[in-house]
Design brief:
70% helix; 10% strand; 125 residues; single chain; two-stranded parallel ribbon; elongated; mainly alpha; two-stranded parallel sheet
Length: 125
C-alpha cells in the first residue's frame, strides 16, 4: 500500500503541469456481495483441508474470518462508496487524499502520530 501511495504522489507531481490531477482514495470496508461471501467460502475451504493442513491453517483461517467479519460490521454500502468516488472524481480541485469509510478515516490520522509497531498492534486486534 505504501508503494502505491508513493507512486501516486510521484505521479501527481509529475503530471500536475499538464493539468492532470491524481487523487488517492484510502478505502475502508465496503459492503459487497464478494465480501459477504468470503467468510463462508474460507470456512468451506478450511473444511476441505486434510488433517495436517487443518492443524496448520485452521486457526489462522478462523482468526482471519473473525477479523473480517468484525471489519465488515463497520463497512459502508457499496452505493455510498461509489457516490463518494464519483464526487471525488468530478470535483474541480480535489484534495490529494480522501478516506472512504469510518475505519479509513480513523486509521489515516493515527498513521501520522503512532509508532509503526503500535499501529500494527492496534490494527491486528
Amino acid at each position: 500500500m505504501a508503494a502505491f501511495e508513493a507512486a501516486s504522489d510521484s505521479l501527481r507531481r509529475e503530471v500536475a503541469s499538464q493539468g492532470i490531477q491524481v487523487v488517492i482514495v484510502q478505502l475502508g470496508g465496503v459492503q459487497t456481495p464478494m465480501a459477504d461471501r468470503s467468510g463462508p467460502l474460507s470456512h468451506e475451504i478450511a473444511d476441505s483441508l486434510n488433517a495436517e493442513h487443518k492443524a496448520l491453517y485452521g486457526p489462522l483461517i478462523s482468526r482471519t474470518v473473525a477479523t473480517q467479519t468484525s471489519f465488515l460490521q463497520h463497512a459502508i454500502p457499496a452505493e455510498r462508496a461509489a457516490a463518494k468516488i464519483v464526487k471525488v472524481a468530478t470535483v474541480k480541485r480535489p484534495r490529494p487524499r480522501y478516506s472512504l469509510g469510518m475505519d479509513a478515516a480513523f486509521t489515516l490520522p493515527l498513521n501520522c502520530i503512532l509508532p509503526t509497531r503500535l499501529m500494527d498492534r492496534v490494527l491486528t486486534r
